[in-house]
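Usage example:
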Amino acid sequence: MIVLGIESTAHTFGVGIVTDSESSFILADERAQYIPKQGGIHPREASRYMAEKAPTIVAKAFEKAGVRPSNLDAIAVALGPGLGPCLRVGATTARALASYFKKPLVPVNHAVAHVEIGLKLTGLKDPVVVYLSGGNTAVIAFVEKRYRVFGETLDIALGNLLDTFARETSLGPPYVVNGMHVVDRCAEQGKKFLKDFPYVIKGQDVAFSGLLTAALRAYKRGVDIHDICLSLREIAYNSVLEIAARCLMHTKKKEIMLVGGVAASPILREKFQAMAKKYNAEIGVVPPQYAVDNGVMIAWTGLLAYRSGIVIDPIKAIIRQRWRIDEADIPWR
Amino acid sequence: MEIESPTLKKLLEEEAIIVTADGVKRLHILSDVQLITMGAEAYIYKAKFMDIDAIIKWRFPKNYMPKDLDEIIRRNRTELEAKMLWKAHSLGIKAPIPLYIDLDEGILIMTFIQGHNFRDIANIIDVDKLCNIVKTVGIYTAKLHLSGVVHGDLTTSNIIVDNDSVYLIDFGLATISKRLEDIAIDVHIFFRSIESAHPTIEEIAKRCFIDGYKQVVGEDRLRVVLKAVENIRLRGRYIAARKLRTEWGF
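Running the assembly step on the lines above writes:
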């Protein structure tokens, strides 16, 4: 079975082609990433960029995979969650391909895809999933047919916290240099742990906005930025570790999987490894290349869904900007 | 089994002399220590403390945390938990009774409660019993809230059921607050633990909780709290209702 998947939820337009054979899993993995000249992602600019790149990326994927559209069994597309204008580019591309080549169209939830590609690549069976990216901070576990959110941020995401702090203090952009976040790097020279920063855990949820405010205030007061970076990072990372540990104990699962762009942080990974050891759990980290947005994860999840009979009429395949992971059915598990 | 904590080691060796009308008894302050579980932040042991069935909660040092932060958190939570347990008792809420505390090491010893963890039985007990238990939890929660305490971790794992008695445990994340926001988060956390771990009983559990809560605070206050809970829920990621609100301006 060969499935093509299209990703366009935020800054990356990606096309992946995968098969269900173990020996040649990924046939193509083409991406184009929109990098803003300054500030964050502007949805209109990002979608314009994607619309320009889409035809080339699709053509490249077919070329790389050495398959023709007629060889495909299905076409999968991430219909959400994400930025509306960007999602529409992917959805339009997918609908066009599916109707023109008369192939079944498979709707995929972007967050589910992050989890599924992680399971495929780490070989974990039933982990507590820690999903950390620019826009997401969530602890997720599979219970009763769905991926359920055990804890999440009540305000801003972890990646958002680090990026915003870096931006406001001129540490970035770029936010990640040589695989390390600028806040992580700045924290290396931190010596003193600042005591007045809020550490907010509410049940299984975290909240970072107060921490961001406290850090920025300290910066304006002229406190050493390295100390601020250190305190900010430790509090932010450890509150995520704590809710992950809570979920681990609550669900009695024995594995932890780190996924999403922020999961690439080597410091965060070390901490999780130490924590997993303490709790006797196995840890799996999704390789950075597939921890960020890509078409392969959409194709793979589309393949799983298609095998379980999930298809959508192109006319009904409209995007869902706010499609929560726990609203997606997972019949293949 | 190896006990790593110096305080616990010392208690295991020390003896107490108990004088009663029947005579004099010598016994170890602590004995029969058995690890029963590892919680999210602490080791939980069952033991005999001065001949009483007890639970030892040891917030162990976390090597993945900076030492300063770890110590502050362990100390604060241990102290707060003991205080909050007393507070709960003064309100007529069934909870463990604190027996011994060591803040430097993060140790709290309290009475052992015989019974089932609600999380393990929630999906198998019959509906009436389920409703009664959750209703009691609603009453407890409302009583705490009225006197300015939020539990902070009101999940199904933190409820113990022994025949007809319902106990609340784990006050480690409790705070003193009368802010509507904090109160609503308490209720939100309970609802979410039901939704995520027991989706099949979601409707009845929520209804009975609300019943119990209303019994204490009254209809008007309940409405205010539930409205705040709804607002918190809408703050989560990718909520469809929020989109409508922003698009249509209501």
